[in-house]
Design goal:
The complex is a heterodimer of chains A (98) and B (484). By secondary structure, chain A is mainly alpha-helical. Chain A contains 3 helices and 2 strands; from the N terminus they run H-H-H-E-E. Classes of the chains: A mainly alpha (98), B alpha/beta (484).
């Protein structure tokens, strides 16, 4: 598959990246992206009819854990909020959404 | 300066037990060595001197504890492990100055075992890279030749071990990130089975591939570190309950008890001549000692690199969605809306290799391409798994090179990501498979650079893997340490 700059920018938007901030880097990124995707196209030659996808190498099935309530730790909550670039009381702040 | 930093973990533990030196003396010797060589090697992102010396003092005061298997032993951890009281950056500007509010399970277990963490080591940003050149804080240098890369992504960990900055280290391995730098720096590195060690508190890259593991100067030391950190954890449900085995004193395996499989796909004719020469000699030493070597085929490995880079980048794009400038880490100011905040923060905060992998991962997961790339790769992963599984029924372990090249000059492949991805062929199939792998030095090349070899084992067979590794170690020439 061929990757052009429009495709690279469209995927970047989905990834919440903005390569248009650096036009030189965008060119190189598009080229590398295209080369790598072309290489990945090698997989098309494998017949995978009826093969179950393997998403994890775990040999044992994952079961549910017991639902056990734990005491909240207010200090931990405060420490987590303290790491925010901007906060207001118990909330994380972001620029206007609407 | 005290030469105690030269000891390996097992030797140091004997000395501590006998009272030949104290935990403080040993820790101070490692810290002094670190300070002396660090300007050249640049293996560490944070040195925890005060914390380490305070811990050593507390241990000495309490007295030697034979129930603590790493009592008083100075070690390092890769900067992807969350640790209280020190920053956790994962080699990224995005996390510069970030302090975790909790500790990784393995860090807690190291401390409980009596280990003293003296530094956090450098790595490629978010563990994505094979050379440590993609650390936002500059590359680590190979202690054998400071103009060359140490491998990666746990390049800081491997370089630190070889340079004597700590007696052992913990790294992580998603596609070879422990085994390849261990091979290029000339130490021992173990990627345990997926699910052997908790990933809680480890900065995530590819969650079905990531696995923490030890690096040290000897196979036995790696076993000792593994024993201290492995096993079930209530905070990581993917950790297996399969019994651990005796990693500290595994039942020895004689050379004549070993059959090693040599996959033709991993022994190409175009290995670098220095690498080929050392490995040919290493194989000949094994055969002379009675190890049986058998050739076999793993045809699906032709697709391993493409499969891996689809699955790993897909998982990375999901895991790294959390770096958004909202809850922690870097935020680019001046965005007019939320979308711009995300895009600017990520574009300007993440490095080129990380952005490239996020982009690839987003692409293979996107509507219209998911079936052709992501699902297809997951199906081929099953074929690769079956191939390796079958190969491991015909022999005890597989034996392969770790890298087709010895440590290359810094900057050689920075503009050629695809070539570097393809060089990971020697290591990444094991992460797709999930089994354990052990790298150890096979010898020094004519260029005075280490050449590593790698054993591949069946899942949860670390005890026998360590035993086989110790047998190979006894048959191959010791690499020693470089002069710095």
């Amino acid at each position: 598959m061929t990757i052009n700059q429009d495709t690279a920018l469209a995927v970047a938007r989905l990834a919440r990246l903005d390569p248009s901030l650096d036009p030189v880097a965008l060119d190189k990124l598009t080229q590398d992206f295209g080369r790598i995707v072309s290489y990945m196209d090698i997989l098309a030659e494998v017949d995978t009819t009826g093969v179950t996808p393997m998403y994890s190498p775990m040999l044992e099935p994952l079961g549910p854990r017991p639902d056990e309530p734990k005491e909240p730790d207010p200090q931990k909550a405060e420490a987590l909020l303290a790491a925010a670039p901007e906060r207001s009381g118990r909330f994380f702040c972001v620029p206007r959404v609407v | 300066m005290s030469e105690l930093w030269r000891l390996n973990l097992a030797e140091a533990l004997i000395g501590l037990k006998k009272g030949d030196f104290t935990a403080q003396e040993l820790t101070q010797a490692s810290l002094d060595r670190l300070k002396a060589v660090e300007p050249k090697v640049k293996a560490c992102l944070a040195v925890l001197e005060e914390m380490a010396l305070a811990q050593a003092q507390a241990l000495d005061k309490a007295g030697f504890d034979a129930t603590a298997p790493l009592w008083g032993l100075p070690v390092t951890v890769k900067d992807v492990f969350c640790l209280k009281g020190a920053p956790t950056t994962a080699g990224s500007k995005e996390l510069k100055g970030f302090h975790s509010v909790f500790e990784a399970t393995v860090v807690q277990r190291l401390r409980k075992a009596g280990a003293i963490i003296i530094a956090k080591t450098n790595c490629d940003e978010f563990a994505m890279g094979s050379s440590t050149e993609f650390s936002a804080f500059g590359p680590t240098k190979n202690p054998w030749d400071l103009t060359r890369i140490p491998g990666g992504s746990s390049g800081g960990a491997a370089a630190a071990v070889v340079a004597g900055e700590g007696l052992g280290a913990l790294g992580t391995d998603t596609g070879g990130s422990i085994r390849q730098p261990a091979g290029l720096c000339g130490c021992v590195g173990l990627k345990p089975t997926y699910g052997r060690i908790s990933r809680y508190g480890v900065v995530a890259y590819g969650s079905s591939l990531d696995q923490p593991g030890p690096l040290a100067m000897t196979v036995k030391d790696c076993g000792r570190l593994l024993a201290a950190v492995a096993g079930p954890d209530e905070y990581d449900s993917t950790v297996s309950k399969i019994p651990l085995g005796d990693f500290v004193n595994p039942k020895p395996l004689k050379p004549t008890e070993l059959t090693l499989g040599l996959p033709t796909e991993l022994w190409p004719n175009d290995l670098q001549p220095e690498v080929a020469k050392v490995l040919t000699e290493a194989k000949s030493l094994l055969e002379k000692a009675g190890v049986k070597l058998v050739k076999l085929d793993l045809p699906s490995l032709k697709y391993a690199v493409a499969t891996y880079y689809i699955l790993a980048t897909a998982e990375a794009s999901t895991n790294l969605a959390r770096y958004d400038g909202v809850r922690y880490g870097l935020r680019q100011e001046g965005a007019v809306d939320l979308d711009e905040l995300y895009a600017k923060t990520r574009e300007l905060g993440l490095g080129p290799e990380v952005r490239r992998r996020i982009l690839l991962g987003t692409f293979v997961l996107s509507s219209g391409y998911y079936e052709a790339y992501y699902k297809k790769a997951a199906q081929i992963r099953r074929l690769i798994f079956a191939d390796i599984q079958k190969a491991l029924t015909a022999c005890d372990f597989l034996l392969s090179p770790v890298s087709s090249l010895s440590a290359w000059p810094l900057g050689s492949f920075l503009d050629d990501p695809l070539t570097v991805y393809q060089m990971d062929l020697m290591t990444l199939p094991l992460n797709l498979y999930g089994g354990p792998g052990l790298t150890l030095g096979a010898g020094l090349g004519a260029d005075n650079l280490p050449v590593g070899a790698q054993l591949w084992g069946r899942p949860f067979d670390e005890e026998r893997l360590l035993a086989a590794g110790a047998t190979l170690e006894s048959l191959w020439p010791p690499l020693g340490r470089p002069t710095l």
